[in-house]
Design goal:
about 250 residues, alpha/beta, Spore Coat Polysaccharide Biosynthesis Protein SpsA, Chain A, ten-stranded mixed sheet, 9 helices, globular
Amino acid sequence: MCEVTVIIPYKDNLNYLFKAINSVLFQSYKKFEIRIIYDNDDKKDLNLIKRYVFSKNFRRKFQIKIFVNKKNIGAGRSRNIGIKLSKAKYIAFLDSDDVWHKDKLKLQTIFMKKHNIPISHTAFNIIDKFGKKINERKLKKKLYYNDILNSCDIGLSTVMINRNFLKKNNFWFPSIKTKEDYVLWLKILKKIEYIMGINKKLTNYRKLDKSLSSNRILSLVNGYKVYKNYMKMGHLESVIRLIILSINYLKKIN
């Protein structure tokens, strides 16, 4: 019986993808399925991924399905496809270059049920391209709307969310290429009072120099869009919010 659908969008970084998949396959909690959304116009990695995950060495290969986008649509919209395909109670997001602690799903499903909540997140480590820890993110027990307006402290690969809650409220990732998760968390926090977190570092977030999130100009443009286009703020308020968000981000990395 599957209780959690793990959604992994993939564009590149094949070796990191295999590490991400392994971190799911060797979870202590076993009631999961994996949905890999292949989102690269170049299909050169597709057969390698299929060969890897469907090899005879994988005892749990029946839990993995790969869906191929006709064209590159971005990680956010790829996750939306995974949500639509899921029939599990919970959705867990994992970026293809991140990895989980072996008890991540177990501890988080217990936490979700204990508190009867629609969404949760965890603390996380930040690692470099070699897997070496370079920083960490702790968290507050509860995050409110105004908290993340000033500083988005929710790591995407740490989040677990009730699938019916998403669909009932028509919550989806927007089409922008960065900060798409930030938009979703803000919209959710307009619906519920707070998001609860587990203050255990159950995810390793990999910081890569060439990642979209490291493109400062794109990040600033999309940060403005978050406030202006999606939160429906005026121009001046959007600029002020963007400045505050940027200052708080710089504080975290220094």
